[in-house]
Amino acid sequence: MRPFELLAPETVEDAVASPGTFLAGGTTLVDLMKLNVLTPRQVLDINAVPLRGIDTTDGLRFGALERMGDIAGHAGVYPVISRALLLSASQQIRNMASIGGNLMQRTRCSYFRDVAMPCNRRVPGSGCPAIEGANRMHAVLGTSDACVATHASDVAVALVALDARLRLVSESGTRTVDLASFYRQPGETPEVETDLRPGELIAEVVVPRLDWASNSTYVKVRDRQSYEFALCSAAVALRVEDSRIVDARVAAGGVATVPWRLPAVEEALRGAPATVTAFEEAASLAAEGARPLSANAFKPSLLRRTIVRALLELTEGNHS
After folding, report:
1. N or C: which end of the chain has fewer CB within 10 A?
2. What domains sit in the chain, N to C, each tagged with a CATH number?
């Protein structure tokens, strides 16, 4: 780790006025600083900044510094969000990590985290060895010839499924962006991962009210039961009336370079009977456009099965 200056602003105004890298829980930033992947000269500890609070009166609102564990345990949080948070990491990390920091976490690609290796996200133009190398954990959707790294956040997948928005603050004011459009697919500029502008800070996560999201879940498939990143995941909310699907929200993780919304699957589910056959037909659309690599050709099939599993979980006893 290289030397750096640590500052601790106590107001939003002071935080966004100071050049530097924001530090909340530190569960990602500190790791990357130890590896010299990130070498900020100035770090801003923002934990004293008043960006906390959980409001469930009309939809959901989370202050960016709210800890993952506190949100997961809150009674008014939709199950898909709570479950995604609980499956994200160990209890110790959930107690430290902030929701804003989780949404801003960097990829877990081993080439990105190894400064001895080329990586277009870390050093633009240096190459992407994962395309021909160790790529079992990598993406099959939203990839480019410059990058195939998978987005790491679980809760971002759930939030994208529910049309969450971010409130961003800077010296020039406040703006609100859809979380789905906040993340950028790599294209030819994989080093630009989000729509966050210089000096901007995530202040709040806003989830619109969706009463039927009480029937929702997050299914995560991984190599071991705990403390592991997803090979594939599905965030699903389902509205079922008289054994027929009225509405659906579906997003996937572990298979794409960004949290991956699946509108074609949602459209196929709307109006369909809550049956295994209908679920399988809708899920067959999930991997359209996939570009498997040498070691992850199993992911399109795994994605389809994961979605069906989530749908079955939400309709147990109502399908045939």
Report:
1. C
2. 212-314 (3.30.390.50)
Residue 209 tokens, joined: 């009210």
| DSSP, residue by residue, the chain | ----EEE---SHHHHHHS-SEEESS-TTHHHHHHTTS---SEEEE-TTSS---EE-SSSEEEETT-BHHHHHT-TTS-HHHHHHHHTTS-HHHHHH-BHHHHHTPPP--TTTT-TTS--TTTSTTS--GGGTSS-TTS-SBS--SS--PPP--SHHHHHHHTT-EEEEEETTEEEEEEHHHHB---TT-TT--BSPPTT-EEEEEEE---GGGGSEEEEEE-SSSSS---SEEEEEEEEEETTEEEEEEEEEESSBSS-EE-HHHHHHHTT-BSSHHHHHHHHTTTTTT----TT-TTHHHHHHHHHHHHHHHHTTTS--
Is the pTM here over 0.90, yes or no? Answer: yes
Over the stretch 156-174, which tens digit does the pLDDT of each residue have? Answer: 999 999 999 999 999 999 9
